[in-house]
Write a structure and sequence with these properties.
alpha+beta; binds magnesium ion; about 20% strand; four-stranded antiparallel sheet; binds cytidine-5'-diphosphate
C-alpha cells in the first residue's frame, strides 16, 4: 500500500463544540498523521468553489452557507492508504448510517452538520489539498 495524502476539514459544527482535538485523536489512532493544519473561516465564494461538484444538488446552497458560517480547520492527513482510511474513520455521510466508533457516529449532528469532510479519490485529494495549501506548508 502506498503512502497517500488527503484533505480533511473539521467542519463548523465540530469547531464550535471544541472537538478539534478529539477528532484529531481519532485520525492519529488510525495511523493518519496531521502534516499540515490551519484554522480559517471560508468565504461563501470559497465554499461554493470548493463544493462546485455538488452545484446541482438541492442541498448546495445550504451546504455552502453552513461551511462559511463559522471557522473550520483544514488539514492534510498522511499515511498508508490515507484517502480510504480517512473515509473509514469518518463514517457514512448520514450519521444515522455511520458505523460505531466513527467520527460521524460519535460527533455528527445531522447529515449536513456531519463534523468532517474528507477527499473521496486520489484525483480530488490533490485538487482539494492545492485549494488550501502551498507545497511548503505541508511538512511530512
Ligand atoms: O462528505 P461526503 O463525501 O460523505 O458526502 P457528499 O455526498 O460528498 O456531500 C458533501 C456534504 O454535503 C456532506 O458531507 C454533507 O455535509 C452535505 N450533505 C447535505 O447537507 N445533505 C445531503 N443530503 C447530503 C450531503
Ligand atoms: Mg464528498
Amino acid at each position: 500500500m502506498a503512502v497517500e495524502r488527503t484533505l480533511s476539514i473539521i467542519k463548523p459544527d465540530a469547531t464550535r463544540r471544541n472537538l478539534t482535538g478529539k477528532i484529531n485523536a481519532k485520525f492519529e489512532a488510525a495511523g493518519l498523521r496531521v502534516v499540515a493544519q490551519k484554522r480559517l473561516q471560508m468565504t461563501c465564494e470559497q465554499a461554493e468553489k470548493f463544493y462546485a461538484v455538488h452545484e446541482a444538488r438541492p442541498f448546495y446552497g445550504e451546504l455552502c452557507a453552513y461551511m462559511s458560517s463559522e471557522p473550520v480547520v483544514v488539514q492534510v492527513l498522511e499515511g498508508e492508504n490515507a484517502i480510504a482510511k480517512n473515509r473509514e474513520v469518518m463514517g457514512a455521510t448520514n450519521p444515522a448510517n455511520a458505523a460505531p466508533g466513527t467520527i460521524r457516529k460519535e460527533f455528527a449532528l445531522s447529515v449536513q452538520e456531519n463534523s468532517v469532510h474528507g477527499s473521496d479519490s486520489a484525483e480530488n485529494a490533490k485538487i482539494e489539498i492545492d485549494f488550501f495549501f502551498k507545497p511548503e506548508e505541508i511538512v511530512g
